[in-house]
Amino acid sequence: MTEQRQRGERNTAARNSRDCGVRALSIAANIPYQQAFDLLAARGRVQSGRRGVTYWSDIEACLWKLGFKVRWQNGDGTLKTAGRNYPGGVWIFHTNDHFAACVDGTVYDIWANTARRVKDAYRII
Predict the structure, then answer these.
(1) Could you tell me the pTM of the whole model?
(2) Residue 121: band (very low, low, confident or very high) from pLDDT cuts 50, 70, 90
(3) Could you tell me which residues come within 8 angstroms of residue 125 by beta carbon, excluding any fewer than 6 positions away?
(4) Which residue among 5, 9, 68, 122 is buried most deeply as judged by most CB within 10 Å?
């Protein structure tokens, strides 16, 4: 397991905010943050100053490129309850303007204990 997955936090060396999609891809695919950042940048991830924007379609394309398959299901609950609602496997959750990763029932995200509603849940296989 990578250090990123253990910590579930942003790469402070990158010094940019709104990198939740990069972090979610890094954790779910168990790859280094910089590799996830580069993959999404190659897909056209918008970086404007310190603010970045990542779209689900780009995360999904990177996962496919890395050899993963993705299965969608309707979101259930919040980031705080997501670990109980999705206890097994690897997931990426989409909330309003945010992505978070979950591995075997543990949400790895700086907002993990919040009431952000999970709109979409993507199982990574």
Answers:
(1) 0.85
(2) very high
(3) 68, 69, 70, 71, 89, 90
(4) 122
The token duo for 82 is: 């997501």
Q: Please report where in the chains the tokens 């954790």 appear, as a residue.
A: 27
Provide the residue type at 86 as one letter. Y
DSSP, res 21: H
pLDDT in tens, 46-84: 765 555 678 999 999 999 999 999 999 999 999 999 999
Task: Show the domains of the chain with their CATH numbers.
Answer: 15-124 (3.90.70.10)
Rounded to whole angstroms, the Cα distance separating 27 from 31 reads 7
Distance between CA atoms of 39 and 58, rounded to whole angstroms?
Answer: 9
